[in-house]
Amino acid sequence: MAKVLIIGAGGVATVAAHKVAQNIDVFGEMVIASRTKSKCDALAADILRREGVTARTAQVDADSVEQLVALFSAEKPDIVMNLALPYQDLTIMEACLQAGCNYLDTANYEPKDEAHFEYSWQWAFRERFEQAGLTAILGCGFDPGVTSLFTAYAAKHHFSEIQYLDIVDCNAGNHHKAFATNFNPEINIREITQKGLYWEDGKWIETEPMEIHQPLTYPGIGPKESYLLHHEEIESLVINYPTIRRARFWMTFGQQYLTYLDVIQNIGMSRIDEVEYEAPLADEAADGKQKSVKVKIVPLQFLKAVLPNPQDLGQNYDGETSIGCRIRGIGKDGAEHTYYVYNNCSHQAAFEETGMQGVSYTTGVPAMIGAKLFMQGLWKKSGVHNVEEFDPDPFMEQLNVQGLPWHEIHDGDLEL
Ligand code: NDP
To answer: Which domains does the chain have, with CATH numbers?
Structure first.
């Protein structure tokens, strides 16, 4: 019988697991494994209640190749969906090779001690996956993921030459908290406090963090200030579509969010190096005296512990996300055209279906679709591939069926 193994039990994994359950005829059997087994058990219970599907659970430390190989060898899944954190990408890929499993993720590898992400570490696995006849699907969330496939779809059906690509990501939702991140706070804050980067005329151009910004109008939402960020899908897209002259990524932020972020940085709470701290022990010593212990803490990891958990934002989250690709280039007819393809996703609808907010939903649904297409043999290709290297058509069809319908505007004003 077919089998999928999900690693992680956070916001994204929760959505993906619900969606796997809704497509269990293709997946066969589901196992959910994560660091904290009680979270996997709670998720399995919710899936049984909502979808009537049983999932087995397991405990695993995904930083340990040995533990992963033992789990994969015992379970023998067809595909492992890595929905833990980017830190675990390499250990999980290594374990997949050793145990003979296929692989999928939603974010590229990032070392814990350096806020820097790029694909080179994962692309280094290409030959070994090819030789083993195994498929690794990289970046199958929304961005990267859907945005990469929107680009592939535009190249396949509408353009003979894509010249300008702007990926635009707007979250116009309101969770009614003073400050919270929409996915893992540690990963999110590391990403957006980095320098900006974009591709122009064959080279990378670096900017100061949030240096370049302008208002952009999002469908059904209106104008929102949008900031140029470095985002990982640009790295593979400019290689796979070499006609691209300029590729940029924009994300909206509210003024309040940016003010909090500024404070977090200025007071040192976004630091990722260890700080020594003398902490009082929770229990008094037998003689009644207060003892203390020296501990090492990483300020950003401590901040994550006190910020709202993105998984708990869903209840009162209203509004929607709008993410898409704005493309200009030479159409199949030889004339210049513009094209805007996007999806809007309601936080409330996502919450009602899966118990999670829209950002987890827009990531977990594409991850399930990628794994489903693999299981159906449509996205089976030995080696390590970014999602745009697969046929976008069945993926685009599934987006419409699985809760992320998309829309297109031909020859409109791209504002960029
Ligand atoms: P969460 O923090 O909610 O969940 C992460 C899960 O991974 C938790 O269940 C955590 O376990 C588990 N985990 C962490 N470390 C380990 C480990 N060593 N071994 C086993 N399990 C571990 O994150 P999200 O669900 O918000 O994000 C998941 C992934 O999705 C991230 O990689 C993120 O970058 C990516 N993402 C991608 C997007 C896209 O569009 N492409 C958008 C948003 C997110 P525990 O509960 O014990 O901490």
So the answer is: 3-138 (3.40.50.720)
